[in-house]
Amino acid sequence: MAYYTVGTIVNTHGIKGEVRVMAITDFPESRFAVGSTLYAFQKGQSKPVQLTIASERPHKNFYLLSFEGKPSINDVEIYKQSTLKVTDDQLQHDQLQPGEYYYHQIVGLDVVTVDGEELGTIKEILSPGANDVWVVDRPGKDDLLLPKIDQVIKHVDLDQHQVTVELMEGLE
Known about the structure:
The chain has three helices and twelve strands; from the N terminus they run ββαβββαβαββββββ. It has helices at residues 28-31, 73-76, 103-106; strands spanning 3-13, 18-23, 37-41, 49-59, 62-67, 83-87, 110-113, 118-126, 133-137, 144-147, 153-157, 162-165. The protein is elongated, with a radius of gyration of 19 Å.
């Protein structure tokens, strides 16, 4: 079964079983909704722990979650630094607008220019601010950083496993 990261438990909050979660998702309202199922991956554990959200509320730049059957800090302290994930069937492809993709759909795609020159493969996506930056691993060269803007990313073809780009002056 494939799992996809939606957040990280960074700490506990109070004594009533709440945890502080740093969201790594564009859909926190649905991912962290009461009744939703998350899987906690703890360091050193081979199997994830299934958790059902009992309560949710935003707090500063985090989300405070509590889980069914975990009413105290003693019940959730073991989950500190756990990665929270969802399964493939929990992904909500219908929420994506045209031109929007999940990170796992983009990482690994081949990158070619509009002229047909092969550049490399997308190895990761950075989110430094205004727009994402796609990092292209180029054999024998430094990584190429491509801003996710319409002037650079011309076409994404998931079926052909390829991204077509137009390199603006100064990118290479």
